[in-house]
């Protein structure tokens, strides 16, 4: 609780001591006096100023109206109504006027006699007045010693665990001080009164009985019985008089929030909304005044502003979002704040409630040492669930009802995708609040989460139910749609039966509205003429249960419909159609026809979460494993809070710059003209873009050409207004193209006209990449991102991996992965815009391709989590066939095997799945399992056959399609790397699991990798792809050479290795030409020279040679063939040193 609230004053202790015998609480006068006057002797309010008397006051005054005796006693103005004044009527008291109380003024002579007679009559009624005061005193629990303390204890036991917005220790301190010293006119006393009112109102939770029969609802079964509703209203009325004195401290906001809960409990939802808006608005004022606050650790021994502020913020946010779904009122704007804390922080320790409160009499099954821990799990899960349900509703309402009718397959896919998110949330619930869908939980927190979980499922099914109900009669719905609609109706019946046992609490109004909604859905299915949906057996009884529940709660809320005009007519119509309702209806009266409301929030509603969401945790990985056991310590419990949240969707468009709560720039900001100055001249820039899409883009085709072309022409029209993320994409394209063209290329002639431009394309490429990162940094890409941002990052990573090394792009790849998840690229988006959907799918495919290289190069990562994300592959279509509203692919084209822009990407997509499984196999304990080799070999071979059928002509390369043959060669490198990974443990005769077939397989794959390197280096038709030999292709060649050498030294001496040695010699010559081109080639060349020397020795083996050969085999068995930078270079000294003639060459590397 806020430390800025002063504690209750002890100044009134002495003055109240004399009143202890009578023990009349000071607020009793407030309960009796609705005019707001303070009674004499009360210590609660400021003392009334006495008017100074004048001489006129001591003379006789004439007055026509005469107050009744009771108003005279209270010294207040009487309205002089006859026969009873207004106040006596309200208090049901006997109103007595004096015998001479007539409109005529009394004579001066009889004044003393009249006064004496009135005093005698008042004294005669003294016993009656004392009896009235006694009755009121009994009706107030505060009249007994320690009453406020006991009620606050009851509040902390029954209410506070559901919404721990207060500091319980400080509340008890305030309550004890109020009992000892009396109530004051401050926020602490207001809080005590509100807690007492809720303590009287809140009833212990009881587990609803299991429903096995069609037992109908009876009023006394579910009607909550309150021992003293008058007491609750008295406490709230006393607190209400203090609400007007509140400010914007945390304690004041807590008072307003509890007032909101109390009003909501008694179905006064509009007044509750008023108090909630007051709390939310004052919280915003406080946050804006406070500004940036330092982080402080939780101190359980005293109040702490930060942690109480977290609870207050998220409680108000959750309550407002729940209200906005029911009442279309303007929000407070609390959700638009960039609040930094994603969840309230739980206390470090959980207290045992049984030590402070006798809870056995309340509910013997619920309260134990884990009660508060369970309550906090419920509280955090409720917050995450509220936000996730809001996001689900926003997603379902995007297309409106028309989209639900027009595309039933999309509805089914949408339901299954959202159902996965629902299952993920359920999977990560802490064990202490876990529940079973089919059984009613034994504790109230699991019961509440189970109810929300089932409501979530019904909301997901509602569009499908709408489709089945509103489909024209001449059309037949899909069978799966009908099954899902029946599932929705069964859920409605189940929830009505479970909700009939609801006691009065803050959510009773929402639950009753849901009962009405479920009943309407059931009746809609029952009155459908086509009878497409098979109704449950107990649907009629469920309708009657709903009618009786609505009739009961209508005593508190007039907006609830009753049975007669609302439900009887549809049920009779359903009976005529053949459905057997088998139930009767109790006669009830209908007070008001309910207003129509939207089933789902409209797109115009404000966002359902604050704008700090893009920085939240990524979506947790699904898994079939068991749920972790319940934590035995608060520290372990605290480590699971972040798993409660599921990632909400991120808006595809970036927010305004003012919405960014913090900056993550990597350098000073530069003006746009300065960023544009680093671009090449327009003709050169256009040439680089054209060359990129002609030769480079097909290797990594993640861009949609027509979309980029439109963006490029818009950029040329107004460069100053260019989006920074798209400018970064343009720089990334230019940087990659400059890395792959020779300086003598005619397209670069205008670039050299400026004498200050260095004729070093590598440095120019590096400058373009630096400019791309500068644009991304200035655009705040870590907190604001769109598809252009992701595309620019992927092209940058692709360039780095193929020119510098894959390890240099690993960190950027992690950022790109999480940005892709935030942009929901791994989830099938709305089919209303096919271009955007395909761009997202291509970006996700690019993520997987780059991770495939990481899988083959590194052994310290496991990408099975990515493989488990069942994202869809990009459509097998060319760029010009993808339009905004459709993909223009004819049925003949779709059924035929043809090369498209996406062919290579789709093959890479399949390779990622296969390589991930191979990597898991060779890194696991079953890598020596020979039985697993054949299935993997068959899969790789099947992939190769698909490549051959698409890219080759009768098994030979096509002279008409150069790009297709280059793609085939690149795919073959992945296949042979996978062969080497699988067969490496079995290829050597010294191995305990030697297989001759594996040695032959390794030798063949090694020769194939060296031959692919030769083709990229020598074939003129692959000249535009020769830049690949500077990086990955040469690394693959080293892998093949080491594998081939290991196989050759293990073969018999009489074997003919002439052809194999010629392949190694040719590879050495090529690497000698490339060793100055890149760091990778400079490392590879000396190793190939040593391998060449080792294979060229023809002398018979000596013991020393055998020892050296053994050392070589040990080195080959332990070296990581994919990582030249991790090779033990010291091994090559001594017997395996390179010839003297190469020393000068080796020294340069």
From TrEMBL:
SMART domains: Fungal_trans (SM00906), GAL4 (SM00066). GO terms for molecular function: DNA binding; DNA-binding transcription factor activity, RNA polymerase II-specific; zinc ion binding. It comes from the Eukaryota. Pfam families: Fungal_trans, Zn_clus. Residues 1-58, 99-118, 594-634 are annotated as: Disordered. One of its GO terms (biological process) is DNA-templated transcription. InterPro entries: EcdB-like_regulator, XnlR_reg_dom, Zn2-C6_fun-type_DNA-bd_sf, Zn2Cys6_DnaBD. SUPFAM superfamilies: Zn2/Cys6 DNA-binding domain. Residues 67-97 form the Zn(2)-C6 fungal-type domain. Residues 7-19 have a biased composition (Polar residues). Keywords: Metal-binding, Nucleus. Gene3D superfamilies: Zn(2)-C6 fungal-type DNA-binding domain. This is Zn(2)-C6 fungal-type domain-containing protein. The lineage of its organism: Eukaryota, Fungi, Dikarya, Ascomycota, Pezizomycotina.
């Amino acid at each position: 609780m806020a430390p800025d609230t002063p504690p209750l004053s002890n100044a009134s202790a002495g003055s109240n001591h004399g009143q202890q015998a009578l023990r009349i609480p000071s607020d009793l006068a407030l309960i009796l006096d609705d005019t707001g006057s303070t009674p004499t002797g009360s210590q609660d309010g400021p003392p009334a100023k006495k008017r100074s008397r004048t001489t006129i006051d001591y003379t006789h005054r004439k007055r026509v109206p005469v107050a009744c005796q009771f108003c005279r006693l209270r010294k207040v103005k009487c309205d002089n109504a006859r026969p009873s004044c207004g106040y006596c009527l309200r208090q049901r008291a006997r109103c007595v006027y004096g015998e001479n109380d007539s409109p005529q003024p009394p004579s001066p002579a009889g004044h003393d006699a009249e006064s004496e007679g009135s005093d005698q009559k008042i004294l005669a009624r003294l016993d009656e007045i004392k009896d009235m005061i006694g009755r009121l005193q009994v009706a107030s629990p505060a009249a007994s010693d320690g009453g406020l303390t006991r009620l606050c204890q009851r509040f902390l036991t029954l209410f506070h665990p559901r919404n721990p917005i207060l500091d319980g220790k400080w509340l008890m301190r305030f309550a004890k001080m109020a009992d000892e010293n009396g109530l004051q006119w401050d926020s602490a006393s207001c809080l005590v009164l509100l807690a007492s009112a809720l303590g009287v109102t809140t009833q212990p939770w009881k587990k609803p009985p299991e429903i096995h029969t069609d037992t109908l609802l009876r009023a006394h079964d579910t009607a909550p019985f309150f021992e003293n509703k008058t007491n609750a209203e008295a406490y709230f009325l006393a607190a209400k008089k203090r609400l007007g004195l509140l400010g914007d401290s945390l304690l004041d906001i807590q008072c307003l929030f509890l007032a909101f809960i109390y009003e909501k409990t008694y179905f006064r939802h509009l007044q509750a909304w008023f108090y909630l808006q007051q709390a939310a608005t004052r919280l915003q004022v406080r946050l804006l005044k406070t500004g940036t606050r330092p982080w402080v650790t939780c101190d359980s021994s005293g109040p702490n502003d930060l942690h109480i502020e977290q609870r207050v913020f998220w409680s108000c946010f959750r309550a407002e979002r729940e209200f906005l779904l029911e009442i279309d009122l303007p929000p407070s704007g609390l959700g638009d704040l960039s609040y930094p804390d994603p969840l309230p922080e739980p206390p470090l320790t959980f207290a045992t409630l049984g030590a402070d409160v006798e809870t056995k009499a309340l509910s013997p099954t619920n309260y134990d040492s884990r009660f508060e821990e369970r309550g906090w799990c419920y509280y955090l899960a409720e917050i995450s669930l509220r936000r996730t349900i809001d996001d689900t509703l926003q997603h379902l309402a995007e297309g409106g009802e028309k989209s639900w009718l027009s595309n039933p397959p999309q509805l089914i896919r949408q339901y299954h995708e959202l159902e996965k998110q629902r299952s993920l949330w359920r999977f990560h619930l802490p064990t202490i609040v876990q529940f079973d869908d089919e059984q009613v939980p034994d504790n109230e927190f699991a019961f509440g989460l189970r109810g929300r979980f089932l409501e979530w499922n019904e909301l997901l099914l509602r569009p499908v139910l709408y489709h089945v109900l509103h489909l024209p009669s001449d059309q037949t719905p899909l069978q799966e749609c009908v099954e899902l609609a029946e599932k929705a109706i069964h859920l409605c019946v189940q929830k009505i039966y479970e909700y009939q046992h609801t006691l009065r609490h803050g959510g009773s109004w929402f639950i009753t509205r849901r009962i009405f909604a479920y009943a309407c859905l059931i009746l809609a299915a029952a009155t459908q003429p086509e009878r497409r949906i098979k109704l449950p057996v107990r649907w009629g009884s469920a309708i009657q249960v709903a009618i009786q529940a609505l009739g009961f709660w209508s005593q508190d809320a007039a907006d609830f419909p009753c049975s007669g005009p609302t439900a009887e007519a549809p049920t009779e119509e359903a009976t005529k159609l053949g459905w057997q309702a088998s139930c009767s209806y109790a006669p009830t009266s209908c007070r008001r026809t309910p207003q129509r409301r939207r089933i789902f929030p409209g797109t115009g509603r404000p966002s359902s979460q604050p704008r700090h969401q893009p920085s939240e945790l990524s979506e947790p990985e699904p898994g079939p494993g068991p749920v972790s056991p319940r934590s035995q310590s608060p520290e372990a419990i605290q480590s699971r809070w972040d798993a409660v949240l599921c990632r909400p969707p991120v808006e595809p468009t970036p927010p305004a710059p003012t919405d960014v709560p913090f900056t993550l720039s990597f350098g000073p900001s530069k003006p746009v003209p300065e960023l544009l100055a680093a671009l090449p001249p327009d003709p050169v820039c256009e040439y680089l873009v054209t060359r990129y899409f002609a030769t480079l883009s097909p290797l990594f085709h993640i861009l949609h050409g027509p979309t980029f072309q439109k963006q490029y022409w818009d950029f040329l029209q107004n460069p100053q207004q260019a989006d920074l993320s798209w400018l970064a994409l343009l720089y990334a394209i230019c940087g990659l193209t400059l890395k792959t063209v020779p300086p003598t290329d005619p397209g670069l002639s205008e670039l050299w006209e400026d004498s200050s431009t260095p004729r070093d394309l590598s440095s120019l490429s590096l400058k373009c990449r630096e400019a791309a990162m500068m644009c991304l940094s200035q655009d705040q890409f870590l907190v604001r991102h769109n598809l252009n941002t992701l595309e620019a990052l992927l092209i940058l990573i692709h360039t780095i991996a193929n020119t510098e090394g894959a390890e240099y792009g690993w960190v950027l790849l992690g950022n790109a992965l999480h940005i892709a998840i935030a942009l929901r690229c791994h989830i099938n988006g709305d089919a209303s815009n096919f271009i955007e959907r395909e761009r997202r799918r291509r970006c996700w495919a690019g993520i997987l391709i780059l991770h495939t290289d990481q899988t083959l190069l590194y052994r310290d990562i496991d990408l099975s989590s990515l493989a488990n994300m069942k994202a869809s592959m990009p459509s097998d279509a060319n760029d010009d066939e993808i339009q905004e509203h459709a993909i223009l692919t004819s049925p003949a084209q779709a059924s035929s095997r043809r090369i498209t822009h996406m062919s290579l990407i789709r093959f890479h997509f399949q390779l990622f799945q296969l390589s991930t499984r191979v990597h898991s196999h060779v890194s696991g304990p079953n890598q020596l399992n020979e039985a697993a080799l054949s299935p993997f070999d068959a899969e790789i071979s099947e992939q190769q056959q698909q490549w051959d059928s698409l890219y080759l002509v009768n098994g030979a390369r096509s002279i008409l399609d150069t790009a297709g043959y280059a793609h085939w060669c690149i795919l073959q490198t992945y296949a042979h790397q996978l062969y080497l990974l699988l067969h490496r443990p079995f290829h050597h005769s010294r191995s305990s699991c030697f297989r001759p077939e594996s040695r032959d397989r390794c030798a063949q794959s090694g020769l194939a990798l060296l031959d692919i390197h030769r083709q990229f280096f020598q074939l003129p038709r692959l000249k535009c792809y020769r830049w690949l030999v500077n990086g990955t292709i040469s690394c693959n060649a080293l892998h093949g050479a080491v594998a081939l050498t290991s196989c050759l030294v293990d073969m018999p001496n009489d074997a003919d290795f002439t052809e194999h040695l010629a392949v190694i010699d040719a590879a050495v010559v090529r690497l000698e030409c490339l060793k100055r081109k890149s760091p990778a080639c400079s490392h590879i060349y000396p190793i190939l020279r040593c391998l060449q020397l080792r294979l060229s020795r023809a002398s018979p083996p000596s013991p020393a040679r055998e020892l050296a050969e053994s050392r070589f085999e040990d080195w080959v068995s332990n070296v990581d063939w994919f990582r030249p930078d991790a090779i033990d270079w010291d091994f090559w000294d001594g017997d395996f040193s390179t010839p003297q003639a190469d020393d000068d060459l080796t020294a340069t590397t």
